[in-house]
Amino acid sequence: MNEVIEFLQENGSELLLKSWEHIYISYLAVLLGIIVAIPLGIVLSRVPKVAQWVIGTVSVLQTIPSLAILAFFIPILGIGTVPAIAALFIYSVLPILRNTYTSIKGVDRSLIEAGKGMGMTTWERTIGIELPLSASVIMAGIRVSSVYLIGWAALASFIGAGGLGDFIFSGLNLYEPAFIIAGAIPVTILALLTDLIFSRIEKMVTPKGLKSTEKTA
């Protein structure tokens, strides 16, 4: 216990800074993924033939090792937070895109036809019918993406992007378990907190009628 207190006294301010860098890199990449993947998923739901090709391409990119993606962006974007965010953004897209596409396609067509009968435009049907009914599935994709990115962001340390990976790799290089633990535990806590936050948001955006249906199912 005394060793932990001593470590925090010596490195507490740096630990807070690295935690903030980790959150910034991860959450910004997720935000960019949301901005791109949700509208793209909605568009692709209208063109299933193109959708299979696009989702397949993104799935292939997802299989590329994260270190390789980071290395790929170095000649283009240099080192630091920008290439790290760009690489993490690529990994954030697939779960959100796939869940958005699947959930929009799964909306009961009779409800869409009812909206048409009421004179609703395509935009109004998307905002008023499709997105509310798909919100829980889309949020599930965002949750998965966010938790994965919190873990993968530790690798951003390799290209000078900072984050808690600095503690982990310093510990490995110096054979200091305290540094490894100081980096790994906050990453785990951040991942759990992120999952909790997005699970609460998922419940908030799920329509009440759908919630009651899920409980009785």
From TrEMBL:
Question: Would the keyword Transmembrane be found if you checked this record's keyword annotation?
Answer: yes
SUPFAM superfamilies given for it? MetI-like
Mention any one GO cellular component term assigned to this protein in its UniProt record: plasma membrane
Note the Gene3D superfamilies from the entry: MetI-like (1.10.3720.10)
Keyword annotations from UniProtKB, A to Z: Amino-acid transport, Membrane, Transmembrane, Transmembrane helix, Transport
Record-linked Pfam families: BPD_transp_1
Locate the ABC transmembrane type-1 domain: which residues? 19-198
Major location category of this protein: membrane
TM annotation in the entry: 24-47, 67-94, 147-172, 178-198
Q: Which GO terms describe its biological process?
A: amino acid transport; glycine betaine transport; transmembrane transport
Q: Which family does it belong to?
A: Belongs to the binding-protein-dependent transport system permease family. CysTW subfamily.
**Listed name of the protein:** ABC transporter permease
Q: Which organism is it from?
A: Alkalicoccobacillus porphyridii
Source lineage: Bacteria, Bacillati, Bacillota, Bacilli, Bacillales
